[in-house]
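Intended use. Records like the one below are meant for learning the mapping from a protein sequence to its folded structure. Do not use them to infer anything beyond what is encoded.
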Amino acid sequence: MGYIPTMEEAQKLLEKYNQDSFLLKHAKIVSGILGYYAQKKDPENEEFWRVVGLLHDLDFEKYPQDHCKKTAEILQENEIDEKLIRAIVSHGYGIVTDVKPELEMEKVLFATDELSGLIGATAIMRPSKSLSDLEVKSVMKKFKTPGFAKGCSREVISQGAEMLGLDIKELIQETIDAMRDMGDEIL
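Structure written out for the chain above:
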């Protein structure tokens, strides 16, 4: 059994493999979203959830063609706990890996990773450029517009909501709330 890095150790590891400001911001956002959900679902393991969110795209900048696979290798080389590795790898389910999200945290990561991008893109297109007045109906409108934020897979978002047993609108509202919790500086 390996160890679970602290947020500080995870941040250093993330920065070792990523310099792109967009990817670093995305890691911070997903970490914050997972922390928000952990406070409600698994508060005693909040830092673990946050670390998973921070490291979920560890390999994406340098090894996009080996996404999730290379992260697993890097984390194993660093003697990181297998449950953390599994959680991260599962967010690529059906795309780059066959590791299905099973734990609640894995399902939340799977469901909110792509959704965070759609919500962020919707918010910055608004006159306020803010999350504070963003409503579910605005995100749903953009969700139904395939050309908008086309890198955000609607199929993955829908599949994630289903895994969590949530209506897509419930998932969107909860994720907007999670992102609001971090403030507009994440946009």
